[in-house]
Design brief:
The chain is α+β, with helices and mostly antiparallel strands and about 375 residues long. Helix content is about 25%, strand content about 25%.
């Protein structure tokens, strides 16, 4: 992972995560992965409270695709490339997350990178086709979205700098200017490790989730089933009028990206993507009319060649292994758990932010959260 943060922010310690703040909180029954995150490249433009998150399914995403699928829980949003996912179940693109007005430059940025790296070296011409995948949520309350500050260069740089470092969370990348359930939201990630068996040999599989959380109302916020948002609202009744502008903001959206190394085919991956809905509902999201809740899942287990030799003969060249459906439940459960925890991490990783209208959206108070949860854990 790499970031274009300012030098001062690079010196700041990373924000705490939900397991640091509430070590007794039970989130599923599986252990987290080594970084407890989905590895991404993050590039953010903090001056205007917006940015870009760049996720590479694999380093050579251009030549070798992944099986993938998506699920639309509520469709007030955009995910490009979804028709091709429906048609073939193949992902041959980075996944870009940004704000609603930056879909165009991010789409262009993927093409600019691909043209730079994969045009014919002798002629300089392009002889391939590409359908970029990117998704958006709307940060207009905290970002002067009309400046259209995101550029295609940010995407190119994000792909160039991608690495396997843990994900920066909160006010970073595409999540920089996002709000979540009445508090400052943003980018969050988590992962779960499950046991498996591959051709008789014991193994493990990881299911990771990354969220761009920009949805919901404070009154619906739950941590581990505890109605934290409602309890905080009761404590802060006197300050309710000051928060009226935040409550009037359009209910936003959430994008969830689920990645796994378990061998799943596209139909299974769509089923996996659907389980993000369970994690979302645990925290307090229910898919309002104006919310764009779109989830994509991909598997890195198989490398699908981009351009095998064309033939009119139906040709079989590759054997594909897949998890048996009757053994898939742990993956479903892990996807729900990772989504839930990723949203928690987006909330606790965020910091207060002032928007262009002069209104400050507060981050979730860690001490207040701990004080409430101590009564239940």
């Amino acid at each position: 992972m790499a970031s274009s943060n300012t030098p001062s922010s690079l010196l700041s310690p990373p924000p705490p995560r939900i397991r640091d703040i509430l070590p007794k909180l039970r989130i599923g029954r599986y252990i987290p992965g080594p970084n407890n995150s989905l590895t991404v490249s993050l590039v953010s433009c903090h001056a205007i409270n917006t940015g870009v998150t760049t996720i590479l399914p694999r380093r050579d995403w251009f030549n070798f695709g992944c099986y993938a699928s998506y699920f639309r829980f509520n469709g007030s949003g955009e995910m490009t490339g979804s028709h091709w996912l429906d048609e073939t179940g193949l992902l041959s693109s980075p996944i870009i997350l940004t704000n609603s007005f930056s879909v165009g430059p991010c789409y262009t940025g993927i093409f600019e990178y691909a043209v730079r790296e994969y045009r014919d070296k002798e002629t300089g011409l392009v002889d391939w086709f590409l359908l970029p995948v990117l998704a958006e949520t709307c940060d207009l309350f905290l970002n002067d979205i009309g400046t259209m500050a995101v550029t295609s260069d940010m995407v190119v740089r994000g792909i160039d700098l991608a690495s396997s470092e843990p994900v920066k969370e909160g006010n970073t990348g595409g999540g920089t200017g996002m709000m979540c359930q009445g508090f400052k939201g943003g980018t969050g990630s988590a992962s779960s490790v499950i046991d498996g068996v591959a051709f008789g040999a014991e193994t493990t599989y990881t299911v990771a989730a990354l969220v761009q959380a920009n949805y919901g109302a404070k009154r619906d916020l739950h941590f581990g089933g505890v109605p934290v948002g409602r309890l905080i609202e009761q404590e802060e009744a006197a300050a309710a009028a000051a928060e009226e502008d935040v409550k009037k903001a359009k209910d936003g959206s959430i994008i969830v990206v689920i990645a796994t190394d378990a061998p799943l085919h596209p139909t299974q991956l769509q089923r996996l993507a659907k389980r993000a809905t369970v994690g979302l509902s645990r925290v307090g999201g229910w898919g309002s009319n104006s919310s764009g809740d779109i989830f994509i899942a991909f598997s890195t287990a198989e490398q699908i060649p981009r351009a095998p030799d064309f033939s009119w003969k139906a040709t079989v060249e590759q054997k594909v292994s897949v998890v048996q459906d009757v053994t898939i439940n742990a993956l479903f459960e892990a996807a729900a758990d990772a989504t839930e925890e990723a949203i928690y991490n987006a909330l606790v990783g965020a910091r207060d932010m002032e928007g262009p209208r002069g209104v400050v959206v507060k981050a979730l108070d860690h001490e207040k959260l701990k004080s409430i949860m101590e009564k239940y854990l």
